Structure to design on (285 residues):
């Protein structure tokens, strides 16, 4: 559930921007067929099995225009839903229902799709200590929604943005001159509460990062044998994160290797939309 403070301080601005993109000055079709506004009712129906996510955002797409819109919600974020299931009934101004419909469904379908795909990936790691993470490979201006959806699907969030933590990647190492120098500079600059993670591409880089005191060592695009050796080198000295070329089918073998974390951009950029629909709109008064 997204609380009211977060909704108003973080979410509202994105919803308003989306509505403004969709309605430049008027909804000409709705205004044509509803010259006198009426109160109506419409149903939210699942057209595919999955995990529901984003119901608070969905509702806000209507109430941000008219707080009088009412909802009879049958399912909440994280619930499993089935094809054909009634998820909610929405009652309010027909003009508001029609004009907000597409934006509300865009958010709900996208977020539910990510939660559904994420849950299927998390299931591949059952029985292993490895925790699944997302990345910053998110749709511009959709990061809050996409990362929230990953959590609803049962995975964890990596850093939210560049302010959230130190992650020294290959080009940072190139700019600093070496792994050791990059870690030293980050340790001197960053607040003491920030962990320092370093991307490595070889066992020599892993050894150097461990010796320099990295907190987390990312094992980037390593084959399974190399990754297993890297985990041994890091054991008790730094946490490990597998990244690069991570597919759903590969998750179980990564879990068997024993890394602490595995990150996958596919959670947000490859998840298909979940098919949901607003149907049976009718006037009630």
């Amino acid at each position: 559930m997204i609380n009211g403070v977060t909704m108003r301080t973080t979410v509202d601005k994105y919803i308003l921007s989306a509505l403004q993109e969709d309605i430049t000055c008027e909804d000409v079709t709705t205004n044509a067929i509803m010259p006198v506004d009426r109160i109506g009712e419409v149903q939210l129906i699942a057209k595919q099995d999955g995990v529901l996510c984003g119901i608070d955002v969905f509702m806000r797409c209507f109430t941000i225009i008219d707080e009088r819109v009412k909802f009879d919600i049958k399912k909440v974020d994280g619930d499993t839903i089935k094809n054909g299931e009634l998820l909610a009934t929405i009652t309010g101004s027909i003009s508001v229902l029609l004009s907000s419909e597409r934006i509300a469904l865009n958010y709900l379908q996208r977020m539910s799709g990510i939660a559904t795909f994420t849950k299927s990936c998390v299931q591949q790691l059952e029985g292993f200590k490895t925790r699944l993470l997302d990345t910053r490979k998110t749709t511009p201006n959709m990061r809050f929604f996409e990362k929230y959806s990953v959590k609803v699907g049962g995975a964890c969030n990596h850093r939210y943005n560049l302010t959230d933590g130190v992650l020294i990647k290959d080009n940072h190492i190139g700019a600093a001159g070496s792994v050791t120098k990059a870690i030293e500079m980050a340790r001197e600059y960053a607040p003491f509460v920030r962990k320092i993670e370093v991307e490595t591409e070889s066992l020599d880089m892993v050894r150097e990062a461990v010796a320099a005191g990295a907190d987390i060592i990312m094992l980037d695009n390593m084959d399974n044998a190399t990754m297993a050796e890297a985990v041994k080198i890091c054991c008790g000295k730094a946490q490990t994160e597998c990244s690069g070329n991570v597919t759903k089918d590969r998750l179980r073998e990564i879990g068997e290797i024993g890394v602490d974390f595995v990150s996958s951009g596919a959670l947000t950029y490859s998840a298909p939309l979940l098919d949901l629909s607003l149907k049976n709109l009718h006037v009630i008064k």
